[in-house]
Specification:
about 375 residues, mainly beta, four-stranded antiparallel β-sheet
Protein backbone atom coordinates (compact mmCIF):
# COMPACT_ATOMS: atom_id res chain seq x y z
CA UNK A 1 0.00 0.00 0.00
CA UNK A 2 1.48 3.42 -0.89
CA UNK A 3 2.60 5.23 2.25
CA UNK A 4 2.48 8.69 0.69
CA UNK A 5 -1.30 8.75 0.48
CA UNK A 6 -3.20 10.91 2.99
CA UNK A 7 -4.97 9.23 5.88
CA UNK A 8 -8.43 9.37 4.28
CA UNK A 9 -7.20 7.49 1.20
CA UNK A 10 -5.49 4.91 3.38
CA UNK A 11 -8.72 4.36 5.29
CA UNK A 12 -10.65 3.80 2.08
CA UNK A 13 -8.07 1.38 0.69
CA UNK A 14 -8.07 -0.57 3.92
CA UNK A 15 -11.82 -1.09 3.78
CA UNK A 16 -12.33 1.06 6.87
CA UNK A 17 -14.95 3.84 6.91
CA UNK A 18 -14.24 6.79 4.62
CA UNK A 19 -14.48 10.01 6.61
CA UNK A 20 -15.52 13.55 5.71
CA UNK A 21 -12.86 16.23 5.41
CA UNK A 22 -11.12 17.29 8.61
CA UNK A 23 -10.99 20.78 10.04
CA UNK A 24 -12.37 23.22 12.54
CA UNK A 25 -16.06 24.05 12.57
CA UNK A 26 -18.36 26.69 13.97
CA UNK A 27 -18.75 24.43 17.01
CA UNK A 28 -15.23 25.26 18.24
CA UNK A 29 -15.62 25.86 22.00
CA UNK A 30 -14.14 28.60 24.17
CA UNK A 31 -11.00 27.59 26.07
CA UNK A 32 -10.60 28.67 29.70
CA UNK A 33 -7.44 28.23 31.75
CA UNK A 34 -8.47 26.77 35.11
CA UNK A 35 -5.00 26.24 36.61
CA UNK A 36 -1.34 26.71 35.65
CA UNK A 37 1.99 25.55 37.00
CA UNK A 38 1.43 21.80 36.79
CA UNK A 39 4.62 19.96 35.83
CA UNK A 40 3.91 17.61 32.92
CA UNK A 41 0.45 16.63 34.16
CA UNK A 42 -0.56 13.19 32.88
CA UNK A 43 -3.86 11.95 34.31
CA UNK A 44 -6.94 13.44 35.96
CA UNK A 45 -10.02 12.25 37.84
CA UNK A 46 -12.76 14.21 39.56
CA UNK A 47 -13.44 13.78 43.26
CA UNK A 48 -17.04 13.70 44.51
CA UNK A 49 -16.71 17.29 45.77
CA UNK A 50 -15.85 18.54 42.26
CA UNK A 51 -12.12 19.03 42.77
CA UNK A 52 -9.71 17.40 40.33
CA UNK A 53 -7.06 14.86 41.34
CA UNK A 54 -4.09 15.25 38.95
CA UNK A 55 -0.87 13.27 38.47
CA UNK A 56 2.37 14.99 37.49
CA UNK A 57 4.91 12.85 35.65
CA UNK A 58 7.89 13.74 37.92
CA UNK A 59 6.08 11.89 40.73
CA UNK A 60 3.50 14.15 42.37
CA UNK A 61 -0.22 13.72 43.01
CA UNK A 62 -2.09 16.96 43.65
CA UNK A 63 -5.67 18.18 44.13
CA UNK A 64 -6.73 21.16 42.02
CA UNK A 65 -9.45 23.43 43.35
CA UNK A 66 -11.25 24.50 40.19
CA UNK A 67 -12.93 27.55 41.68
CA UNK A 68 -9.66 28.89 43.10
CA UNK A 69 -7.60 27.80 40.10
CA UNK A 70 -4.86 26.47 42.36
CA UNK A 71 -3.21 23.11 43.02
CA UNK A 72 -2.63 21.99 46.58
CA UNK A 73 0.53 20.59 48.13
CA UNK A 74 1.64 17.16 46.88
CA UNK A 75 -0.16 14.24 48.52
CA UNK A 76 2.18 12.04 50.54
CA UNK A 77 2.35 8.26 50.76
CA UNK A 78 3.11 7.52 47.11
CA UNK A 79 5.45 4.66 46.15
CA UNK A 80 8.99 5.35 44.84
CA UNK A 81 8.52 6.52 41.25
CA UNK A 82 11.07 6.27 38.43
CA UNK A 83 10.73 9.54 36.49
CA UNK A 84 12.87 8.46 33.54
CA UNK A 85 12.20 9.27 29.89
CA UNK A 86 8.48 8.92 29.25
CA UNK A 87 8.04 7.25 32.64
CA UNK A 88 6.96 8.61 36.00
CA UNK A 89 3.60 8.98 37.71
CA UNK A 90 1.12 8.50 34.88
CA UNK A 91 -2.51 7.33 34.82
CA UNK A 92 -4.97 7.13 37.70
CA UNK A 93 -8.48 5.97 38.49
CA UNK A 94 -10.79 6.24 41.47
CA UNK A 95 -12.45 3.18 42.96
CA UNK A 96 -16.05 3.04 41.64
CA UNK A 97 -16.96 2.87 45.35
CA UNK A 98 -14.72 5.84 46.19
CA UNK A 99 -17.34 7.53 48.38
CA UNK A 100 -17.04 4.55 50.75
CA UNK A 101 -13.45 3.36 50.25
CA UNK A 102 -11.57 6.58 49.26
CA UNK A 103 -9.26 4.30 47.25
CA UNK A 104 -7.09 5.71 44.48
CA UNK A 105 -5.30 3.58 41.87
CA UNK A 106 -2.09 4.94 40.33
CA UNK A 107 -0.14 3.68 37.31
CA UNK A 108 3.58 4.48 37.43
CA UNK A 109 7.07 3.56 36.28
CA UNK A 110 8.91 1.53 38.92
CA UNK A 111 12.61 0.75 39.21
CA UNK A 112 13.34 -2.97 39.49
CA UNK A 113 16.03 -5.51 38.79
CA UNK A 114 16.59 -5.32 35.05
CA UNK A 115 15.41 -1.73 34.61
CA UNK A 116 11.96 -0.22 34.93
CA UNK A 117 8.43 -1.48 34.50
CA UNK A 118 4.83 -0.32 34.65
CA UNK A 119 3.20 -0.95 38.02
CA UNK A 120 -0.13 -0.20 39.68
CA UNK A 121 -0.42 1.09 43.25
CA UNK A 122 -3.55 1.23 45.41
CA UNK A 123 -3.89 3.56 48.39
CA UNK A 124 -6.63 5.11 50.51
CA UNK A 125 -6.88 8.88 50.71
CA UNK A 126 -6.74 10.08 54.29
CA UNK A 127 -9.72 11.88 55.79
CA UNK A 128 -7.88 15.16 55.21
CA UNK A 129 -7.13 14.19 51.58
CA UNK A 130 -3.45 14.94 52.17
CA UNK A 131 -1.94 11.41 52.18
CA UNK A 132 -2.36 7.94 50.73
CA UNK A 133 -2.60 5.32 53.45
CA UNK A 134 -2.43 1.52 53.47
CA UNK A 135 -0.76 1.63 50.07
CA UNK A 136 0.58 -1.36 48.18
CA UNK A 137 1.53 -2.35 44.64
CA UNK A 138 -1.13 -4.68 43.23
CA UNK A 139 0.35 -5.33 39.77
CA UNK A 140 3.79 -5.32 38.11
CA UNK A 141 4.39 -5.64 34.38
CA UNK A 142 6.90 -8.41 33.78
CA UNK A 143 9.61 -8.38 32.64
CA UNK A 144 11.21 -5.01 33.35
CA UNK A 145 12.77 -3.13 30.44
CA UNK A 146 15.92 -1.10 29.95
CA UNK A 147 14.40 1.90 28.15
CA UNK A 148 12.41 4.92 29.29
CA UNK A 149 9.74 4.48 26.62
CA UNK A 150 6.27 3.02 26.02
CA UNK A 151 4.89 2.46 29.51
CA UNK A 152 1.24 2.63 28.40
CA UNK A 153 -0.38 3.33 31.78
CA UNK A 154 -4.07 4.19 31.52
CA UNK A 155 -6.42 2.69 34.12
CA UNK A 156 -10.15 2.09 33.54
CA UNK A 157 -12.68 0.31 35.73
CA UNK A 158 -15.16 -1.95 33.97
CA UNK A 159 -18.80 -2.00 35.00
CA UNK A 160 -18.18 -5.26 36.85
CA UNK A 161 -15.58 -3.57 39.06
CA UNK A 162 -12.54 -5.15 37.40
CA UNK A 163 -9.60 -2.92 36.47
CA UNK A 164 -8.17 -2.62 32.94
CA UNK A 165 -4.48 -1.62 32.69
CA UNK A 166 -2.92 -0.61 29.37
CA UNK A 167 0.73 -1.53 28.82
CA UNK A 168 3.30 -0.66 26.15
CA UNK A 169 5.99 -2.66 24.38
CA UNK A 170 8.74 -0.66 26.18
CA UNK A 171 10.09 0.60 22.86
CA UNK A 172 12.56 -2.22 22.19
CA UNK A 173 10.58 -5.38 22.99
CA UNK A 174 7.95 -5.08 20.27
CA UNK A 175 8.08 -8.76 19.30
CA UNK A 176 7.10 -9.66 22.87
CA UNK A 177 3.69 -8.07 22.28
CA UNK A 178 2.84 -11.39 20.54
CA UNK A 179 4.15 -13.52 23.43
CA UNK A 180 1.46 -14.50 25.92
CA UNK A 181 4.07 -15.53 28.48
CA UNK A 182 4.73 -11.91 29.49
CA UNK A 183 2.93 -8.58 29.97
CA UNK A 184 4.67 -6.62 27.19
CA UNK A 185 2.26 -4.87 24.79
CA UNK A 186 -0.87 -6.13 26.52
CA UNK A 187 -4.13 -4.92 28.03
CA UNK A 188 -4.45 -6.39 31.52
CA UNK A 189 -7.58 -7.11 33.58
CA UNK A 190 -7.39 -7.67 37.34
CA UNK A 191 -9.57 -7.21 40.40
CA UNK A 192 -9.22 -4.29 42.80
CA UNK A 193 -6.94 -6.32 45.06
CA UNK A 194 -4.73 -7.48 42.19
CA UNK A 195 -6.05 -11.01 41.79
CA UNK A 196 -7.05 -12.55 38.45
CA UNK A 197 -10.74 -12.62 37.50
CA UNK A 198 -11.75 -16.25 36.84
CA UNK A 199 -13.29 -15.34 33.46
CA UNK A 200 -10.12 -13.84 31.97
CA UNK A 201 -9.44 -15.43 28.57
CA UNK A 202 -6.10 -17.12 29.34
CA UNK A 203 -6.71 -18.30 32.91
CA UNK A 204 -6.44 -21.97 32.01
CA UNK A 205 -3.42 -21.75 29.71
CA UNK A 206 -0.09 -22.74 31.22
CA UNK A 207 1.84 -20.80 28.56
CA UNK A 208 0.06 -17.48 29.17
CA UNK A 209 -0.08 -14.82 31.88
CA UNK A 210 -3.58 -15.07 33.37
CA UNK A 211 -3.87 -11.29 33.79
CA UNK A 212 -3.91 -10.73 30.00
CA UNK A 213 -7.14 -9.47 28.43
CA UNK A 214 -5.85 -8.70 24.89
CA UNK A 215 -2.45 -8.54 23.20
CA UNK A 216 -0.52 -7.22 20.19
CA UNK A 217 -0.58 -3.58 21.35
CA UNK A 218 2.21 -1.03 20.89
CA UNK A 219 1.67 1.77 23.45
CA UNK A 220 -1.88 2.42 24.64
CA UNK A 221 -2.19 5.91 26.13
CA UNK A 222 -5.96 6.32 25.84
CA UNK A 223 -8.66 4.11 27.36
CA UNK A 224 -12.31 4.63 28.23
CA UNK A 225 -15.65 2.81 28.51
CA UNK A 226 -18.50 3.39 26.11
CA UNK A 227 -21.29 5.02 28.18
CA UNK A 228 -24.04 2.83 26.73
CA UNK A 229 -22.44 -0.54 26.03
CA UNK A 230 -19.81 -0.46 28.80
CA UNK A 231 -17.22 -1.81 26.35
CA UNK A 232 -13.58 -0.80 26.59
CA UNK A 233 -12.11 1.38 23.83
CA UNK A 234 -8.38 2.04 23.58
CA UNK A 235 -6.23 4.44 21.58
CA UNK A 236 -2.59 3.57 20.96
CA UNK A 237 0.47 5.14 19.39
CA UNK A 238 1.69 3.80 16.10
CA UNK A 239 5.23 4.30 14.90
CA UNK A 240 5.44 6.70 11.94
CA UNK A 241 1.72 6.62 11.26
CA UNK A 242 -0.67 3.89 12.34
CA UNK A 243 -2.09 5.30 15.58
CA UNK A 244 -5.11 3.08 16.28
CA UNK A 245 -8.52 3.07 17.92
CA UNK A 246 -9.47 -0.43 19.05
CA UNK A 247 -12.26 -2.04 21.03
CA UNK A 248 -10.24 -4.79 22.76
CA UNK A 249 -12.11 -8.02 23.28
CA UNK A 250 -11.14 -10.93 25.47
CA UNK A 251 -8.30 -12.99 24.05
CA UNK A 252 -8.03 -11.10 20.75
CA UNK A 253 -4.75 -10.25 19.01
CA UNK A 254 -4.43 -6.64 17.77
CA UNK A 255 -1.46 -7.33 15.54
CA UNK A 256 1.54 -5.32 16.69
CA UNK A 257 4.23 -5.62 15.33
CA UNK A 258 3.12 -8.16 12.70
CA UNK A 259 0.51 -5.88 11.11
CA UNK A 260 0.33 -2.10 11.26
CA UNK A 261 -0.65 0.90 9.16
CA UNK A 262 2.56 2.68 10.11
CA UNK A 263 6.19 2.39 9.11
CA UNK A 264 9.39 2.60 11.15
CA UNK A 265 10.87 6.01 11.94
CA UNK A 266 13.69 5.13 9.54
CA UNK A 267 11.16 4.65 6.75
CA UNK A 268 11.54 0.86 6.78
CA UNK A 269 8.58 -1.49 6.59
CA UNK A 270 7.31 -3.01 9.85
CA UNK A 271 6.03 -6.58 9.97
CA UNK A 272 4.11 -8.32 7.22
CA UNK A 273 1.64 -5.69 6.04
CA UNK A 274 -1.72 -4.39 7.20
CA UNK A 275 -3.80 -7.58 7.50
CA UNK A 276 -3.33 -11.13 8.66
CA UNK A 277 -5.72 -13.91 9.60
CA UNK A 278 -6.31 -14.13 13.33
CA UNK A 279 -5.38 -10.48 13.92
CA UNK A 280 -7.89 -7.70 14.46
CA UNK A 281 -8.27 -4.57 12.35
CA UNK A 282 -8.48 -1.20 14.11
CA UNK A 283 -11.77 0.67 14.16
CA UNK A 284 -9.85 3.70 12.87
CA UNK A 285 -6.27 4.82 12.39
CA UNK A 286 -4.30 8.00 11.76
CA UNK A 287 -1.59 8.40 9.14
CA UNK A 288 0.36 10.57 9.65
CA UNK A 289 0.45 10.05 13.38
CA UNK A 290 -1.03 12.56 15.83
CA UNK A 291 0.40 10.75 18.94
CA UNK A 292 -2.96 10.35 20.73
CA UNK A 293 -3.21 10.45 24.52
CA UNK A 294 -6.24 10.29 26.80
CA UNK A 295 -9.72 9.20 25.75
CA UNK A 296 -13.28 10.06 26.71
CA UNK A 297 -16.79 9.42 25.44
CA UNK A 298 -18.85 12.56 26.00
CA UNK A 299 -22.33 12.13 27.50
CA UNK A 300 -22.99 15.51 29.13
CA UNK A 301 -25.50 18.26 28.38
CA UNK A 302 -23.19 21.25 27.82
CA UNK A 303 -22.45 20.07 24.25
CA UNK A 304 -25.59 18.10 23.33
CA UNK A 305 -24.55 17.64 19.68
CA UNK A 306 -21.44 15.81 20.87
CA UNK A 307 -23.12 13.16 23.00
CA UNK A 308 -21.68 9.76 22.17
CA UNK A 309 -18.61 11.22 20.45
CA UNK A 310 -15.16 9.93 21.31
CA UNK A 311 -12.47 12.49 22.17
CA UNK A 312 -8.71 12.09 22.33
CA UNK A 313 -5.89 14.55 22.87
CA UNK A 314 -2.85 14.63 20.63
CA UNK A 315 0.75 15.27 21.62
CA UNK A 316 2.65 15.61 18.35
CA UNK A 317 -0.52 16.80 16.63
CA UNK A 318 -1.20 19.46 19.29
CA UNK A 319 -4.96 19.16 18.92
CA UNK A 320 -8.13 17.63 20.29
CA UNK A 321 -9.75 15.06 17.99
CA UNK A 322 -13.52 14.60 18.15
CA UNK A 323 -14.71 11.37 16.53
CA UNK A 324 -18.34 10.81 15.69
CA UNK A 325 -19.47 7.26 16.37
CA UNK A 326 -22.34 5.21 14.99
CA UNK A 327 -22.98 1.57 15.90
CA UNK A 328 -19.52 1.32 17.43
CA UNK A 329 -17.76 2.64 14.30
CA UNK A 330 -16.03 5.95 13.60
CA UNK A 331 -17.92 7.84 10.87
CA UNK A 332 -16.35 11.30 11.11
CA UNK A 333 -13.49 13.25 12.68
CA UNK A 334 -13.15 16.94 13.55
CA UNK A 335 -9.82 18.36 14.70
CA UNK A 336 -10.15 21.08 17.29
CA UNK A 337 -7.95 23.55 19.20
CA UNK A 338 -5.14 23.44 16.65
CA UNK A 339 -4.59 27.17 17.12
CA UNK A 340 -3.83 26.65 20.82
CA UNK A 341 -0.52 24.93 20.05
CA UNK A 342 -0.72 22.64 23.10
CA UNK A 343 0.33 19.02 23.58
CA UNK A 344 -2.89 17.59 25.00
CA UNK A 345 -2.19 14.72 27.37
CA UNK A 346 -5.59 13.89 28.84
CA UNK A 347 -9.26 14.67 28.26
CA UNK A 348 -11.96 14.15 30.91
CA UNK A 349 -15.62 15.09 31.26
CA UNK A 350 -16.24 17.10 34.41
CA UNK A 351 -19.15 16.46 36.76
CA UNK A 352 -21.03 19.50 35.43
CA UNK A 353 -20.64 18.41 31.79
CA UNK A 354 -17.77 20.63 30.66
CA UNK A 355 -14.69 19.10 29.01
CA UNK A 356 -11.34 19.36 30.80
CA UNK A 357 -7.88 18.94 29.28
CA UNK A 358 -4.33 18.60 30.60
CA UNK A 359 -1.45 20.04 28.60
CA UNK A 360 1.89 18.27 28.61
CA UNK A 361 4.46 20.93 29.52
CA UNK A 362 6.77 21.83 32.38
CA UNK A 363 4.33 24.69 32.93
CA UNK A 364 1.30 22.55 32.23
CA UNK A 365 -2.28 23.77 32.33
CA UNK A 366 -5.68 22.45 33.27
CA UNK A 367 -8.06 23.76 30.60
CA UNK A 368 -11.85 23.81 30.46
CA UNK A 369 -13.90 23.84 27.25
CA UNK A 370 -17.20 25.72 27.43
CA UNK A 371 -19.78 26.50 24.72
CA UNK A 372 -19.54 29.85 22.98
Amino acid sequence: MPRSLPMLALVALAGLPTLPALGQTAEEPRVEVVARGLVNPWGMAFLPDGRALVTERPGRLRIVNLSAGAAGAPITGLPPIAAVGQGGLLGLALDPDFATTRQVFLCFAESRDGGTGTSVFRGRLSASFTALEEGRVIFRQMPAGNTGRHFGCRLVFGRDGTLFITLGDRGNMEKEAQNLANHIGKVIRITKDGTVPPDNPFVNRADAKPEIWSYGHRNVQGATLHPETGRLYTIEHGARGGDEINQPQAGRNYGWPVITYGIDYSGAKIGEGTRKAGMEQPLFYWDPSIAPSGAMFYNGDKFPKWRGHLFTGALAGQLLARLEMRNGQVIGETRMLEREGERIRDVVQGPEGYIYLLTDDRDGKLLRLVPR
